[in-house]
């Protein structure tokens, strides 16, 4: 178990991604404030938040469980970003950069889960 969630590279990456998502969604249409914008932001924030909750619960089983929730949020975020791109809210370059970040983080979280579950 990590001493602090802040020591986890996947948490650090999740925090960076959440900030990038907030910046990218600032210019989306105002009518999406309670729709896609809110969903994208919630999914992005859920990734580091669930990793933090897993660490805070203090057991490897709980860390693995909450890491799986974070992983689900990453997959959700990938889908929502694709929708945002398809609706024309983000251009291809921004979409590809964010999607690459999500994809990389997804792989890292998956590896972290495998590592945690292998320690049981």
Layout of strands and helices, then pairs:
Elements: H1 9-25, H2 36-57, H3 60-86, H4 92-118
Helix pairs in contact: 1-2, 1-4, 2-3, 3-4
What's the CATH architecture?
Up-down Bundle
The H-and-E topology, N to C, reads as HHHH
Tally the structural domains.
Answer: 1
Could you name the CATH topology? de novo design (two linked rop proteins)
**Radius of gyration over C-alpha positions, nearest whole angstrom:** 15 Å
Average pLDDT across residues? 94
Number of β-strand runs: 0
Global outline: elongated
The number of helical elements comes to 4
Describe the protein's architecture and organization.
By secondary structure, the protein is an all-alpha fold. The chain is built from 4 helices and no strands. The protein has a single domain (about 5-120), classed as 23S rRNA-intervening sequence (de novo design (two linked rop proteins), Up-down Bundle), CATH 1.20.1440. The protein has helices at about 10-25, 35-55, 60-85, 90-120. It is elongated, with a radius of gyration of 15 Å. The model has no long low-confidence stretch (mean pLDDT about 95).
Which descriptors apply to this entry?
120 residues; de novo design (two linked rop proteins); 4 helices; mainly alpha; single chain
Question: What can be said about this structure in brief?
Answer:
This protein is mostly helical.
């Amino acid at each position: 178990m990590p001493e602090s969630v802040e020591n986890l590279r996947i948490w650090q990456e999740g925090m960076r991604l959440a900030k990038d998502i907030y910046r990218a969604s600032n210019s989306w249409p105002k009518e999406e404030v309670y729709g896609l914008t809110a969903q994208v932001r919630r999914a992005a924030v859920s990734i580091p938040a669930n990793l933090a909750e897993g660490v805070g619960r203090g057991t490897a089983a709980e860390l693995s469980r909450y890491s799986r929730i974070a992983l689900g949020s990453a997959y959700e975020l990938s889908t929502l970003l694709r929708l945002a791109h398809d609706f024309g809210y983000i251009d291809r370059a921004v979409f590809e950069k964010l999607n690459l970040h999500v994809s990389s983080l997804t792989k890292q979280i998956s590896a972290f889960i495998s590592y945690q579950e292998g320690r049981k």
